Amino acid sequence: MYEHFFQCPYCWEEISMLLDPSVSKQTYVEDCEVCCNPIAVTPVFGNGELMSFEASEIGQ
């Protein structure tokens, strides 16, 4: 597992998530551990390394 720190797109607090590098491209929804809003998370891995990461608001 890979721990990644980033800012919540809603409350701007720094949070972390555990990411699974065994899948090269993923998209899923996780709730912010601070404000509980849903975040669309898209990590992309290459050779076990995090190549890109996007965390965005879910359309309201």
From TrEMBL:
It holds the Pfam family Zn_ribbon_21. InterPro entries: zinc_ribbon_bacterial (IPR025990). It comes from the Bacteria. This is CPXCG motif-containing cysteine-rich protein. It comes from Arenibacter aquaticus. The lineage of its organism: Bacteria, Pseudomonadati, Bacteroidota, Flavobacteriia, Flavobacteriales.
